[in-house]
Design a protein that fits this description.
The chain is an all-alpha fold. It is built from 5 helices and no strands. The two termini are about 25 Å apart.
Length: about 130
């Protein structure tokens, strides 16, 4: 039985769906292409999901701060998230262990999942 997707559990549905899609795409690319492609999907998807989780965590904290502190905190979190993500992507793209197509596919997992959920919600509500 599938739980209803509501505003309260939307974040959990996105994360769980993205992890499931990551597993399917990683195993599919391992079976259809190569280990390099599977590692690329796994690395790109992991970076995308961790970045998504970090961004949500930062937004929750920012919304609880006073307006003067929120701006500084948001800016520092944004810059540090971009630096960490950039360093991770630099390592993945310059290393020869990962396929570029796999990395790009993995980085798209959150977007694919959100689009799929949006279409599902639109079709299930008759919209």
């Amino acid at each position: 039985m599938m739980a209803a997707i509501k505003e309260d559990n939307l974040f959990a549905v996105i994360v769980k769906g993205s992890l499931g899609l990551l597993a399917v795409l990683t195993l599919g690319s391992l079976a259809l292409f190569s280990g390099k492609a599977a590692l690329g999907v796994l690395a790109g998807g992991s970076i995308a999901i961790l970045n998504f989780l970090w961004m949500r965590n930062a937004l929750q904290r920012i919304l609880g701060l006073l307006p003067a502190n929120a701006t500084r905190y948001a800016l520092m979190r944004y810059i540090s998230r971009m630096i960490v993500t950039g360093c991770a992507l630099y390592f993945v793209l310059t290393s020869e262990w990962f396929s570029l197509a796999g990395v790009l596919t993995g980085l798209s997992i959150i977007v694919i999942n959100i689009l799929t959920l949006s279409l599902y919600r639109a079709l299930s509500t008759g919209g």
